[in-house]
Specification:
This protein is an alpha/beta fold and about 325 residues long. The chain has two domains: about 210 residues, 3-Layer(aba) Sandwich (Rossmann fold); about 70 residues, Alpha-L RNA-binding motif (Alpha-Beta Plaits, 2-Layer Sandwich). The protein has a six-stranded mixed beta sheet with strand order 6-7-8-3-9-10, with helices on both faces. A hairpin with a 2-residue loop joins strand 12 and strand 13. The two termini are about 40 Å apart.
């Protein structure tokens, strides 16, 4: 298979047992298509970081196969790594260096000539909205700027596959949403992205395909839309005109609760007719101003899958 036809990442029966006997990966297999935005979800300790560590050659696998655009990491590690950009969870640059120097020096590790690296650094720092900070001490950057610098540094080598290990862990929602915009732009320009996260809203907002890993094994994988369609429950939020009555109407098969003084929260079977809901509202004198779907259905799927696996273990 040629590199242009090969998956961006192919992992086959990947296993990792650490020296202390912990079996971190138990035969993981997955394919990520070129150009995809792929989520790797799982609770802490599920094996996400071990998987990313093996793919990026920071962790030695016990057995299995890893290919990056058709290149086996065992057969030609350097060629495979040249196609990968890694953004780890921890901030791991020198806080006393300037963003421009951080990017240029990183490019130097990959043999990029300095003149070329300087031009590339200007390009990636402008894309990251950091060019005005290029000559400032990195420790003076805000938390969001430091995160964007990590991404800019990884993009210095023009990687075809960008891997981000929980890039928004511990940052506030404004920074997180700013990073989402940056990552969407990088993906739209043609870079394949793999994102590990435990923010389910993040995966649903950004990713087209996903795998859920729990206790070192993949418990579900496939297109985001297909996985969400497996849910037999839908959630809606209703914005109400006026106050909410003391006694809410009973709607058989559905759960209706008060979200706040002007919002009702409804969970109902996907097969249920919404007309039944509105009829019940009308009978109770509840006037609906607007309604919206609850965004984070993925959380329910995640909890269901991981708790099911836990019960079986």
């Amino acid at each position: 298979m040629s590199e242009t036809q090969a998956p961006a990442l192919r992992v086959g029966d990947l296993r990792k047992t650490y020296d202390n006997g912990v079996e971190a990966l138990k035969g993981v297999s997955l394919d990520v298509a070129p150009g995809d935005f792929y989520a790797l979800l799982g609770p802490n300790g599920a094996g996400k970081s071990t998987l990313i560590g093996i793919v990026s050659s920071l962790v030695n696998k016990s057995s299995g196969k890893v290919e990056v655009f058709g290149i086996d990491i065992d057969a030609d590690r350097d060629a495979a790594m040249r196609r990968i950009g890694l953004v780890p969870q921890e901030l791991n640059f020198n806080m006393f260096e300037k963003p421009l120097d951080i990017c240029v020096n990183y490019a130097g590790f990959y043999g990029i000539p300095r003149a070329q690296a300087l031009a590339r650094a200007e390009e990636v720092l402008k894309e990251a909205l950091l060019w005005d900070k290029a000559d400032k001490m990195s420790r003076t950057l805000s938390g969001g700027m430091k995160r964007r610098l990590m991404i800019a540094r990884a993009m210095m080598t023009k990687p075809r596959l960008l891997i981000l290990d929980e890039p928004t862990a511990g940052v506030d929602i404004e920074i997180r949403r700013g990073m989402w915009k940056t990552l969407k732009e990088i993906n739209a320009a043609g870079t394949t992205i793999i994102l590990t996260t435990h923010y389910l809203e993040e995966a649903e907002s950004l990713c087209r395909n996903l795998a859920i890993i729990d206790r070192g094994a993949i418990v579900e994988q496939g297109p985001m839309k297909s996985l969400l369609a497996k849910l037999d429950v839908e959630g809606f939020l209703f914005d109400i005109d006026g106050g909410i009555p003391a006694a809410l109407p009973a709607i058989e098969g559905a759960t209706l609760t008060v979200a706040d003084d002007h919002t009702l929260d409804l969970d109902m079977p996907r097969a249920m007719d919404l007309n039944r809901v509105f009829a019940a509202f009308n009978a109770a004198g509840i006037r609906v101003r607007s309604m919206r779907t609850k965004a984070n259905r993925l959380e329910e799927l995640f909890v269901r899958l991981t708790s099911k696996e836990g019960a079986a273990a």
